[in-house]
Amino acid sequence: MPAVSKSQQRFMGMVCAAKKGKMKNPSPEVAKASASMSKDDACDFARTKHKGLPNKKVSKEQLSYDSIRNINVDSNDRDGDRSHFDRSTARMTEKKNLKEFLNFFNTKKTPPTPKPVPKDTKVLAYKNYKPGVLNKTTGEFTQRDHTPDEAARYGWKPVNTSSYGPGDTTSQGYNTGKDKVQRTADGTPFTGSTRGLAVPYKYKANEVPKGTWAGTPSVRFGTQVQLTQKPQGTNTRITNAPVRDTGNFGPAGEVNRSTSFDLMRQTARDVTGDQNLSPTQYGKRTLYSRIKDRRRNAGPTSQYQGPVIK
Prior knowledge:
Layout: H1 6-19, H2 28-35, H3 39-46, H4 60-74, H5 79-105, E1 122-127, E2 130-135, E3 141-143, H6 148-154, E4 157-164, E5 197-200, E6 224-228, E7 239-247, E8 259-264, H7 265-272, H8 279-282, E9 285-293
Parallel strand pairs: 4-8, 5-7
Antiparallel strand pairs: 1-2, 2-3, 4-9, 5-8, 6-7, 6-9
Helix pairs in contact: 1-2, 1-3, 4-5
């Protein structure tokens, strides 16, 4: 940055010398300027050429002084008084210019605006089939029971499942008609590629209401059930399976009372991603499930509804 006057250039020459350690016992003004700026800035001012520069920067105070000095000269004042006035006003002006000059380097920079701290985002979740709350910001999982309202809103819940194929069902005898086609309890032809699942009976054997089919499903036929091995994340695989069959398992059944769904072979393959998986290899697995839609009028056809208890 160039100097704006010869006096400023000389002054900054002294500051530059002081910064380089070449000046002993500098004046208080020089010491103060030296402490407030870098050596490069001071020496940059000191290197300014004198040519074309005024002796000193003219300020409003200096203009006022010149006017007063002219009046004093016209009034034939003594030289001693005028010289004393000249020196005093010059010192005041130089001190004011020095203060303005130093303030230029002492201007405080506005600190950068700090980045906003992200707010914690908490969502309902399961971990290792245990309910709780996941902090998506920190990744922290806090295990706790979901309230009934939270469970209904979240939808997913862990369930025990098994798998079966066309040759594994005991209902194939009465569900195979004259056409020799094996069918599920809702009348769907049952082959190895059929997708769907079976749900437990709605009633226990000794609690079936009179005139009601013993195989009445606990969830209506046609209801869409969603299944997944994990209910969240970018790699979540969701399989949709309609309720097509019913079986003697679950709370009202006689076997596998902790099982909620019996997956048809192809549905089990879709859930796991293994298209060569057999029901035996699938075994018993815990999945997450939720009801996508509940059918109100879905049910077995009259032709394939199975025996009726009278």
